[in-house]
Specification:
It is a single chain. The chain is mostly helical and 523 residues long. Helix content is 54%, strand content 0%. The longest helix has 29 residues. It is elongated, with a radius of gyration of 25 Å.
């Protein structure tokens, strides 16, 4: 086998020494440049192929054999030999742009589609502006590119999109693993030593293509979640599948079988998404009832929008959306206790803490508040933690199916955290510090305070990541605490919102881990 590995560097940019005026210009330009240089993520041979992944428990499918994949042609068949000849012709005619695509997708299919989803979330994380009548138009899924664009990819929406994406990838991949080892058709270069490859080749069977499986499943989710991006997603889908041909990793029948499998699984996962209650999450008619119920529970002063004109609260019924890792009875059972009420000694102590920060905020507190803000135009706290999970799994050289399992675990935990947090927010309807004269420079969320979404999302994510990467548990727990503290330092939350949000999120993450320990992976 003639293997032509792509020569990639760990980091994408480097500079040569520059002096005098040239140095001044470089510093001036760099001071204005807000681009974040990302490391280049290289392809690798997985630390383990996870050969038994076809027996792991799916989230939506009934089993890894629910979707049927046809048996492939034998390696010595006329049809397969013709595919090998066509593959070698494609490799010999590869262009520089195609090589770039191979390098990009070589980092891993689940890894890249997660990244694409985060980028889309950031692009669509734009709150609708008020119109001349002082109202806030609601984005329209049937006309996604009109103003305001659909979706408004706020934290709950982003959490849900990433959860369904990751579940679809995971269920599709354990199905693929089932058939890979059932049919056991080797990679093209292992059947024909004259096939040149541009990526490392493992002993993983090639049929159906895991990259095509992930691409088709991801596409099925994303065209539903981001309907205005169909042309962009079409191009990514085609590139993802073609890159495996250009790299010499799969023949056409590997790709077509993977594509069909991914489409089928994606359709089943989207069928669940359409019945999870998200369609009623923005039911504004419930807000008055929520407010009155909170007052009856003893909340003396309830949350009201601080925007002018007043903006309807974000997704007041998101707490009724279906959860992944526990039922509604458990959601109620783990709901945080009632917070301090306005005017109590405990409330005054926490307000005084915020007032002191307001007057004497340190540079470090400001740094932390801004680093974790994840506001409009970002991929939100759920995206922040998905990125951490994907990067850690890539660094550990997880197989494609283990990468997907990690992302599905954290995705469902974070979505559950959003659902449970939003249920608590509208159960108690507590005000934010801004109702009492404090200002914030990092963006004011338009929904009740208790508990802190950042804290709940982060603790749930840290719990899952600590299970998957126990040697890094202290780091993830420290990051979750910092994310939580950032909302106090940014004057967005009272400390009780954050501290009990961490407790709540940890319970939610632990429930995701309970499910993971029973999924048959032994991991």
């Amino acid at each position: 086998m003639n293997t032509l590995f792509l020569n990639t560097k760990k980091y994408a940019t480097k500079t040569a020494p520059i002096g005098g005026w040239g140095l001044f210009l470089l510093l001036l330009l760099s001071s204005c440049d807000k681009t974040i240089t990302e490391p280049v993520f290289d392809a690798y041979v997985p630390a383990s192929l996870d050969e038994k992944a076809g027996t792991w428990k799916p989230y939506v499918l009934t089993s890894a054999s629910q979707v049927v994949v046809a048996e492939p042609k034998a390696a010595n068949s006329t049809e397969y030999q013709a595919e090998l000849s066509k593959l070698k012709s494609s490799i010999s005619a590869i262009t520089p742009e195609q090589r770039k695509a191979v390098a990009y997708w070589g980092a891993g299919a689940a890894f890249r589609w997660n990244e694409i989803t985060r980028e889309l979330a950031a692009r669509y994380n734009v709150p609708p502006a008020s119109n001349a009548e002082g109202k806030y138009p609601v984005p329209d899924a049937a006309n996604p590119l009109a103003d305001p664009k659909f979706p408004f990819a706020n934290p709950p929406y982003t959490a849900r999109a990433l959860a369904y994406l990751s579940v679809a990838q995971y269920d599709a991949l354990i199905t693929a693993w089932n058939y890979k080892y059932k049919f056991n058709r080797k990679a093209p270069s292992k059947n024909d030593a004259t096939v040149s490859t541009l990526l490392p080749v493992s002993d993983l069977p090639a049929y159906p293509s895991e990259d095509a499986v992930v691409a088709a499943a991801s596409y099925a989710i994303l065209v539903a979640m981001f309907p205005g991006e169909v042309p962009y997603l079409d191009s990514k889908l085609a590139e993802a599948k073609n890159a495996r041909i250009w790299a010499g990793m799969n023949v056409d029948s590997d790709i077509s079988a993977g594509d069909a499998l991914g489409k089928a699984v994606g359709a089943l996962v989207m069928a669940k998404a359409r019945t999870d209650g998200m369609g009623a999450a923005n039911n504004q008619t419930l807000v008055l009832g929520f407010t009155e119920a909170a007052k009856e529970r003893g909340i003396k002063e309830t949350w009201v929008s601080q925007e002018t004109p007043a903006r309807p609260p974000m997704l007041p019924n998101y707490g009724a959306v279906a959860t992944w890792n526990f039922d509604k009875a458990t959601l109620v059972k783990i709901r945080p206790v009632m917070p301090y009420v306005v005017g109590s000694a405990e409330w005054q102590k926490e307000f005084d803490e915020l007032s002191e920060i307001n007057k004497n905020q340190t540079r470090e507190q400001a740094r932390i508040a801004n680093y974790w803000a994840d506001g409009a135009g970002s991929y939100t706290p759920p995206g922040h933690w998905h990125r951490a999970a994907a990067n850690a799994a890539h660094e550990a050289k997880f197989s494609e199916v283990k990468m997907a399992r990690t992302l599905a675990m954290i995705g469902t935990a974070i979505m559950d955290a959003g659902i449970a947090c939003w249920e608590a927010k509208y159960f108690y309807m507590t005000p934010r510090p801004q109702q009492f004269g404090l200002k914030t420079s990092i963006g004011l969320p338009n929904f009740p305070a208790y508990t802190s979404g950042h804290s709940t999302f982060s603790a749930a994510a840290a719990s899952v990541l600590s299970y998957v990467f126990p040697e890094q548990a202290a780091k993830f727990e420290t990051q979750a605490k910092e994310a939580s503290d950032s909302r106090v330092f940014g004057l967005i939350h009272f400390r009780v919102d954050c501290e009990l949000g961490l407790v709540h999120g940890k319970k939610i993450g632990d429930l995701a881990v309970v499910r993971a320990k029973a999924d048959g992976s032994g991991l």
